[in-house]
Design goal:
alpha+beta, RNA-binding, 36% helix, 118 residues, Ribosomal Protein S5, domain 2, globular, four-stranded mixed beta sheet
Length: 118
Amino acid sequence: MLPKKYRLKNSKAFDATYKNHKIVSNSFLTIYIGKEKKDFDTITKCGFVVSKKYHKRAVKRNRIKRLMREVCRLAIKGNSLGNLNKYMSFIVLPKENTLGIKYCELESAFQQLVKRVR
RNA sequence: AGGAGCAGUCGGAUAAUCGCACAGACGAAAAAUUCUGUGAGGAAAGUCCGGGCACCUUAGGGCAGACCGCCUGAUAACAUCAGGUGCGGGCGACCGUGAGGACAGUGCCACAGAAAUGCAGACUGCCGAUGAUUCCUUUUCAGGAAAACAGGCGAUGGUGCAACGGUGAGGUAAGAGCUCACCGGCAAGGCUGAGAGGUCUUGGCCAGGUAAACCCCGGUUGGGUGCAAGGUUGACUAAAAGGUUAAGGUGACCCGCCGUCUUUUGACAAACCGCUGGAGCUUGCAGGCAACUGCAAGUCGAGACAGAUGAUUAUCUAAAAACAGAACCCGGCUUAUGAGCUGCUCCUUUUU
RNA sequence: GCGUCACUAGCUCAGUAGGUAGAGCACUCCCCUUUUAAGGGAUAGGUCCCGCGUUCGAAUCGCGGGUGACGCA
């Protein structure tokens, strides 16, 4: 799990990130990216959204959510966010074919997307 | 040994590394760091019932409505549970049961069938004893035959889920509970049981099904919304652009301003209580067949607010293991569920 | 979290006091036409979302599930 200071906290922050309309995606994940930072010292925050349409059962949704959090936690810790550090926030959404995915596959998908961020 | 029935239990383990939530300690203006402890289920699920709790509404009472429906008990309450009764299923252990009333009334019973509940006897039929008619015989105040006029009868009628009891015998002109035996059902009475009911005797021979159709009877409930209920303390209700059809203020009127509507920008925009100690859990004793109740001792076991239990690796097991994630809290019901284990019981076969 | 509604042919829908399941479009075949379209005719197509029950008999009545949609904040 992430410490609280790295998490997006309320719906206004989520709305502001969505409204920026900056999206990167591949076959596994979609990432919405927020505005550029005004002050470079502020922390890049992240959020995770798994809708009820993804799967009916809460256990399956929790599983993918935890995997995504773990990927981001290790990325922040290993300082491998790359250009995402320039932005205030980002939101990660899974696609349907990530059901039953393994951790290492998800990590490589995430790193592939991070490289495409400018 | 094999196959069943019932009840219960378990719901991966160990280690390493990186992490999360809450509480406590340290610290202290606050945060951070460090240490310690605790951290999802038997169904947390479906939201199908019943409560607690909270607010709103309501002058009081009734009717209507809604719900329940064998009996007795349990419970805060229930559509729940326990024990029994009847019926049905199973060789059996055992299992299932929505099980008041169809002589209070109304409706429905397609097709088929003479007829579907009506006042049964239109129709099809059987008989023609008795009375009348015709013919024959000669046992001559008699006997026989024919047709079916009067009349008698309710047996027969390829149907159908179902046809004012069923089977058999007697009886008769033909028949009929007309009579008898057994069975089924009804009513009354006796005995018995706390009751549903059980059992015995007697009686008269009879009443179709459907109430998970309306309804009748008996009983229960009395409104609504749900912790995002609700409460406490704070803070913000700001800026820009455009419109102003209707209503309003200023104004004689227009513009303008206030107001109002739309769009854009503004990611510093709440915190706390409710919030978990309860119809709680474990053990023992007592009462009860049991559900459950009483007493005593011990014990505290999640409480988030974009929402905590995860990830990786190694080893073990048949196996990187089913169904599945608390969101105010309890009691049930229903549904989903891998591999086992334990206890009691029944049936079949074999051996002693 | 709480509540409401729907499910019938490939598609859109009818079907009420329970009695053998229907329409339009589409599909297939035939006619018409030089051909196509339009038009006419014929055929086929159903787990009435699933299971259990009540009933002689259930799309319809009762109970339990499933899927989908919507509403409240």
